Amino acid sequence: MGHDEKKGTIILDNFNSTANLTANPGFQSTLSLGSKDVINEKAYNPFEHRKVSHPNSTIGSLVHLLKSSLGSGILAMPAAFKNAGLAVGAFGTIIIGFICTHCVYVLVKTSQEVCVEAKKPSMGFAETCGAAFEFGPKKLRPWANFARTFIDYTLTCTYLAALCVYVVFIAENFKEVLDEYYPEYKLSVEAYCALTLVPLVLICQIRNLKWLVPFSAVANIFLVICFAITMYYIFDDLPNPAERQMVASFTQWPLFISTVIFAMEGIGVVMPVENEMAKPQQFLGCPGVLNVAMTIVISLYGIVGFFGYIKYGDTVRGSVTLNLPQDEILAQSAKILMALAILFTYSLQFYVPMEMIWRELHSKISIKYHNFMQITIRTTAVVGSVAIAAAFPDLELFINLSGAVFLSSLGLLTPAIVDTVHNWNRGLGKYNWILWKNILVMMLSFIALFAGSYVSIVGIVEKYNTTHNLESNMNSTLRT
């Protein structure tokens, strides 16, 4: 055909089997089949989509994580060693510390991976558990909402129980000091619990994690000073280690496990801390915020537990500061500093249950009442924790039971299950080593849960019966 071809004629010149529809500028397809841009589409990066109004620095996040794990639990470690013996306690602390760190790692790692699949910038603890089921095996996907709700409520109960322990700890340390210097005004532990109410209500009105960093920093300073004073007394005229048990009765080991888990676990604070980091990619890895924090935590816990038990033996109390001399100002100052450190830590731990409670309620409340309801809910929660602490003021038994029931479930069992579900379709490693590893972690959590709870409850019943019998005997004596 020449130059006189008619308009609309289809030219078959240079025809081949591949249609190049986009070669003609007059015909631009909106669908680029096999486009390199589509094939190599950049994967969703949750870190790039996070918009945190007040992000924490890496150092600030490390401070928060240390503060969440370095609390009253460190001073309960000598009592934990009493239930294990020096040899079992030393090895057990390292092993349990490693397992706790690993469980936190797999939880955060799973959270970061499911954020990519869900295309969400960040997820909390409960959201992560729900998403693991939602994007896991098809048969387990209907359980996603149940997993999310169950973790939410369990986490709330866990941290409310921990807050009760904090109140008892603060009350007992203040009582030890004030009873020494003002014996004419001796009050019960329950009364001191009540006296903590006003400062705790005020400090818990702080709603932003960033503004809690100074409190965590001050608490850490107090903790270091208290730790130094306590270690001074522990190493002063240290007895021969041969005088202590190397291996305690096997029946007492569950109390050791539950106490160490309670002391080390800060798993509920982990996700809020990671979610509010300016550089969340620095949370995991080597060295990383998690590894640095947990290395410090495990080392300090092992040192205090080992030498504290050598010093005080079977007479060691729920908090080793309570074993310090009553008639020395330096020892008494350590008790006050520790009580203040725990007072400041209370608000950080309170952040976790309050976050869940407010997430459930804020959409059901008119915006103009949000501030009023925040104040009311926070005040009510603090009053409740103080009331429970006053009702059950035995520190050591409270720590054992809380660690056995709540933190063994959340800190060990839940991450193991979530890790297994998340990797079920993605591969469980050579010889299914991820599955076998998680089964061992689950077995440890069940030992802490059932055996620890049983021994703790028996101890509480015996303590109650002993107290009741003493009161009955005293009443009988008075009558005669």
Automatic annotation (TrEMBL):
The subcellular location is: Membrane
- Keywords for the protein's UniProt record, in alphabetical order: Membrane, Transmembrane, Transmembrane helix
Q: Which GO terms describe its molecular function?
A: L-amino acid transmembrane transporter activity
What the entry lists under InterPro entries is as follows: AA_transpt_TM
Membrane-spanning parts: none
Quote a single Gene Ontology cellular component term. vacuolar membrane
Main localization of the protein described in the UniProt heading: membrane
How does the record classify its membrane topology? Multi-pass membrane protein
Q: Give the top-rank taxon of the lineage listed in the UniProt record for this protein.
A: Eukaryota
One Pfam family from the record: Aa_trans
Q: What is this protein called?
A: Amino acid transporter
Q: What is the lineage of its organism?
A: Eukaryota, Metazoa, Ecdysozoa, Arthropoda, Hexapoda
